[in-house]
Amino acid sequence: MKEVYVIGAGCTPFGDLHTRDAVAMAREASFQALEDAGVDISDIDIFYVGSVRSVTSGSFLGNALGVRNKPVTRVENFCASGMDAVRQAAIAVMSGQARIALAVGVEKLRDATRRGLGFRSFHPVFVFGATPPGLFALAANRYMHTYGIGRETLAKVAVKNHRNGAKNPLAHFRKEITVETVLKAPIVAYPFGVFDCSPVTDGASAVVIASRDVAEGLGKAQVFIRGFGLAVMHTEPMYDPSFKYTGFPVTTEAAGQAYKMADISRPLEEISFAEVHDCFTMTEILNYEDLGFAEKGEGWKLIEEGVTELEGKFPVNPSGGLKSFGHPIGATGARMIFEVYSQLTGRCGERQVKNAHTGLAHNIGGPGTVSTVMILSLRS
Amino acid sequence: MRVPALKGICLYLPAFRIEKGLIASQYMQRARGTRTFRWFDEDECTMAIEASMGVVEGTGVDTIGCVIYAAEKGPYRRKSTASVIADVLGLSTDTLTVDITGSERVSAEGLLVAKRICEATGQEVLVTGGFCEHGEPGSDEDIHGGDAGWAMVVGEGGGIVLEEFWVARANVFVKWERGEDTYFLPDGFTVPFELLPTAAAILNRAIEKSGASKVVIGTSSNRLPSQLKRKLGDRNITLFHHDSTTTGVLGSASLPFAMADAVEKCEPGESIVMLAPGDGALAITAKSSDPDNVKIVRINAENPVVFDLYGLYRKIVTYSFEEADTSPIAYWRDAQRIFQLRGGKCGNCGKVFYPYSDLCPSCGFTPVRETVPLSREGRVFTYTTDHITPSPIGKVTHAVVELEGGGRIFVQMTDSLEEMVEIGAPVKLVIRRIHSGGGIENYGWKARMVK
């Protein structure tokens, strides 16, 4: 398999971007990434745009970037859309189809105000009225019941991620919070209160990927894509009578693919830090277990023992995560690659993970329906 | 010669009550007692279904050849409610379904048609109905009305044999003009002049012919029975009617409620006259052969939740969620899967799952051919109380329920203002209105806590 490199990345601030529409956000992030990579838009051979509800087709990049008569594909895979776009770009370069590829993730959610993302019905009555927090809360209540943890443990995930996000100039929420704040907040979907949930956010992020030849030619052969995985199952895990609700098998599967490709067998030791999909506090703890950072039923100990703090042995979500950085759905996966790239290239200032050589990024969507994992490493 | 008889009665009341005085006081009026009110996902159809499922529970539906929906009104103008009920009960598509709507005597009419069908075919007939009355804020219906569902099974071998009938038509009665024809008779209203002589005349004839000692009057009015009693001379008759003090006026559902009371006090060999007012009156005589052989089921008769918030009560009974992205075609295409509580059984891994699909959601095997009936009872596997899901009470609890004997179902919990359920808590599945999008009532399964 050909080695491919991340040679540039860009990201808009995340938040209520009322002055910018989806086109403007995608443009900002993409041109930042191109500038970072030191290439021109005309150098890009192939484009992928990841979005769940802000983009209809590839022609969006015709509007946003002035792309003319080049391959552009819109990628949609729930909350994994952004990272799947990066994955597609990597595959395009690996295959030799393209020398340089651009992946951009974008989501515009804040133009119309609503409570959370609302709900969408795929059927006249089945699963009617279920919302993203509600669906993840099903797993939270089952996990808490099975392993005997309380809301306080979940709250510590939010506290940690807010602490990291406060150091991140691009984050949606840059304010530290306390466990008490999390526990006292109004309930969204029990056991999740407002501070257990990632916010509804606008934003875009872009990544430029190039072949080894191109990267070396540009003097940018620093961070390479060491492995990735994508696992998808059906949309309604609640229909599966064997679904345990104490973890998401898609994550384990996607991670397995990525670890195999990256030749990683002891993730906690071989990886320096991770950006994981903390759409809700419980999700981050489940991710620890599903990604192999902890045994099943013991993920909560990592947060209780401070292992995943920025200064801990294995920092998770140094960016602030979805919780604090924000979660513009289709942008999030690309934003994680932006963060891992920035950490590995030592650009993260106050939130810099020390001696970072390998970073993992992970999305989950559905919930439990789709997961992507991508591992980036510094070239040795 | 077939002998149609009453085999069972199920009476369903919603779980909720509100003080009539609380409602009345908002409009500077007074009233005593409580009224029942439906939860926001209930209507005449779902309450009839609750009672229908209650009356067939334990005995099954294999012998039922006909479903009659008999009520003042139903949820649809041009769709058969009895068909919805037959679907939920899992009856075959060639089951005769009949809707009878109109006057307050409609429940007696349903019983009469059931008797005729049973005589002609020997089949068991399920007669069922629902009554909902709320009207405008501050109206008599708002204060004095009530909500209920009922179901009766008529067939051979039942305990109360249906015999003869007498009808007296009078097409002037209460407020009959246009669509406002609700025949609403709250307590304290004067009984319309036509009824007493008409009803008394046929009642006297029915009593003479049958030698009845019990009369069941299909009304919730406390005044009508006493006025009728005076017209019956010095006969030794026990009158039964539905007392509206705790439930509110139940319209055509009053007859089955009163009938259940009479059957419970009935001796073998005794005769009963059922008298239903409405467009004149209809009387049916019945002879008790084995009253203990009439199954009587009461749902939510005890321990109601009493509301003390008038505003929330109005919000609940007028709530209708219509913004859903749905379609009558998609709903029709899936009606069997939605209503019939049957799961798929995987030919490969053996797991039972719901809703049925020809692809197993657990192992991916296809084609799954076998379906199996699922239990309506189960326990909560996991849950959440979601404050974003639209609802008049600002939250909805969703639960994954493991059903007794296998299979899982993902449903909304209903009949509760409470925040949470517990993992392992016992629940029972019920049919409710999931929403009203696409111009139709989208009925489906929900669950309520088993107390």
Could you name the key traits of this structure?
heterodimer, A: about 375 residues, alpha/beta, Peroxisomal Thiolase, Chain A, domain 1, nine-stranded mixed β-sheet, two-stranded antiparallel ribbon, 11 strands, about 35% helix, globular, B: about 450 residues, OB fold (Dihydrolipoamide Acetyltransferase, E2P), 2 domains, eleven-stranded mixed β-sheet, five-stranded mixed β-barrel, 11 helices, 22 strands, about 25% helix
Overview of the molecule:
- The complex is a heterodimer of chains A (about 375) and B (about 450).
- With about 375 residues, chain A is an alpha/beta fold.
- Chain A has a single domain, classed as 3-Layer(aba) Sandwich (Peroxisomal Thiolase, Chain A, domain 1).
- Chain A has 13 helices and eleven strands.
- Chain A has a nine-stranded mixed β-sheet. Chain A has a two-stranded antiparallel sheet with strand order 5-6.
- Chain A starts with a strand and ends with a strand.
- With about 450 residues, chain B is of the alpha/beta class.
- In chain B, strands 1, 4, 5, 6, 7, 8, 9, 10, 11, 12 and 13 form an eleven-stranded mixed β-sheet that branches.
- Chain B has two domains: about 5-290, Peroxisomal Thiolase, Chain A, domain 1, CATH 3.40.47; about 330-340 and about 375-450, Beta Barrel (OB fold (Dihydrolipoamide Acetyltransferase, E2P)).
- Residues about 175-185 and about 185-190 of chain B have low confidence and may be disordered.
- The interface of A and B includes residues 121, 133, 186 and 189 of A.
